[in-house]
Amino acid sequence: MQESCERFTVSGLVQGVGFRYSTSYEGQRLGVTGYAKNLYNGDVEVVVCGLPEQIEAMALWLKHGPKTSRVESVVRELIPFKPFKGFKIL
């Protein structure tokens, strides 16, 4: 199987609650690469690269996030593959 990348935009109570740190931990646990970044509008952008089943596992996790967050919506889109090193917090 070939690796791919997807961008997720997560909305809700997702800033100031450790969402990016928990996402980074989950990404490392799943073996994916990419990043989690706060956006100015209060959302979090998460780019995930890996095998389809790894990306799907991360997508399921992002629907709930850590216990400290309250996810209201997750929008996902396929983006061109880019090799990242590890899973970063931006």
Automatic annotation (TrEMBL):
What domain of life is recorded for the organism?
Bacteria
Residue ranges occupied by any Acylphosphatase-like domain in the UniProt entry: 5-90
Name of the protein this chain belongs to: Acylphosphatase
Q: Which residues form a coiled coil?
A: none
Entry similarity comment: Belongs to the acylphosphatase family.
Note the PANTHER family from the entry: ACYLPHOSPHATASE (PTHR47268)
Q: Which GO terms describe its molecular function?
A: acylphosphatase activity
Tell me if Hydrolase is a UniProt keyword of this record. yes
| Pfam families according to UniProt | Acylphosphatase
The active site consists of R20, N38
The record's listing under InterPro entries reads: Acylphosphatase (IPR020456), Acylphosphatase-like_dom (IPR001792), Acylphosphatase-like_dom_sf (IPR036046), Acylphosphatase_CS (IPR017968)
Keyword field contains Hydrolase: yes
Record EC number: 3.6.1.7
Keywords recorded for this protein, A-Z: Hydrolase
Question: So what does this thing catalyse?
Answer: an acyl phosphate + H2O = a carboxylate + phosphate + H(+)
- The species is Vibrio ouci
